[in-house]
Amino acid sequence: MNISRQHLMTVINGLYDLGEHSFAVQHPGDDVGTLFRVQLDRENPVATVSFTDTIEALNERKSEIQIQYGDRPADDLPDTQTVIRALTSAGVLEFANQQTVEQYIDRHCYPAVEAGEDPIMVGIDTNLFPWEFPHQMGLDHVTGSKNSAGRQPTNGYVLSNGVVDELHWQYTHFDTDELVDAFGSEFETLADQPAGAKREGRLGIQVYQQLIGSRNVDLIDSEPGDSNIIEGYAEYTASSRKEPLLLSNDHGFVDEAHDHSLLAQRLAFKQEVPPRTTVSWFELVETLYYLTILFGVLKLPKVTLYGVWEGKQDNNWQAEEVNIDCRGSNSNIQTILARHRRIADQYDAAVQSGDNFGNVDS
Questions:
Q1: I need a labelling partner for 29 at 20 to 30 A (CA). Which of 107, 160, 171, 215 fits?
Q2: What is the CA radius of gyration of the chain?
Q3: pTM higher than 0.85 for the full model?
């Protein structure tokens, strides 16, 4: 069963309906194991997430797996900082410099275009592209909240093809035998799919395609490399009377942008995860989506989530789909998921048509 990111909530609802109020989220490999544990509270609704030491130990685990199983299984695992970026994008963690970022946005965004101020266009460096931070930060010109004067935080995006070229997602697994040996039979399904860090790059391509298709976007030509990309943005500013606001995790990129008198803010990430935190169910679902893509496969009670699987095509990526295997011949999780998904589909159809939501069957 394929299910879209926006309907992954049906998995959480289905598990709750079956009495799975507390459960572990696991990587199938015994050498990786449990990533975190979840305690659901539907009344609020919130979830308490308790992290094991696995995420902070990922770099060490990768080295151990490389010695025992070889490069390919080790390279298939994300590193600690990549997982922390995903958790930050999901809203589970704040930026390490959260206050500084908020102050910078307040100072430089919300341009008074009607009074002659230059429009602000968001530019995204390669290391942030997969994670949709402008949306998460409230900077997106469609979803971001207006200020008290009714002004949008920004006016669109300016994207460099030099950044897109750096995403490099094309390498795929052609032979999964080593992955199966290291992590289990679930990894047979990863054949002909983006491998390891290339899945992060493929997420970046997906974000790029979504922005091009649904947002106000200017495109600039530049070669890969920080200096070339920043030169492209500087030329864009000089010729367009629009002001790029560049976001990056790289000190050097931000400093060089400032040398060219460009707006630029570094987004710094925390170095560790807390032992325990409370999140909304939506943030939990976002976490599951991102980590299922990064790790390739995750196991929950009664279901196995596949972020990539043999036969996953571009249309599956565009629909932000994961594949769900309902385990156990006596489990009725598949029936429950189908019912929840039908209700969600009816709700989506009602939203699109403007019908009365109260008419959706329950």
A1: 171
A2: 21
A3: yes
- The answer to whether 249 touches 266, Cβ cutoff 8 Å, is yes
Q: How high is the pLDDT of residue 42? A: 84
Q: Of 233, 249, 266, at which residue does a domain stop?
A: 266
Q: Which amino acid is at 270?
A: K
Pairwise CA distance, residues 278 & 291, whole Å: 18
Instruction: Indicate whether 71 and 7 sit together in one domain.
Output: yes
What residues are paired with 305 via a beta bridge? 298, 324
Taking only the tens place, the pLDDT of each residue in 285-304 is: 999 999 999 999 999 999 99
CB contact at 8 A, 281 and 46: yes
Average pLDDT of the chain, as a whole number: 91
In a domain, 193, yes or no: no
Q: What is the pLDDT of residues 200-243, one digit of tens each?
A: 989 999 999 999 999 999 999 999 999 999 999 999 999 999 99
Per residue in 96-118, is it b (16+ CB within 10 Å) or e — as a string? ebeeebeebbeebbbbeeeeeee
Token pair for residue 317? 């990526």
Maximum C-alpha span of the chain: 66
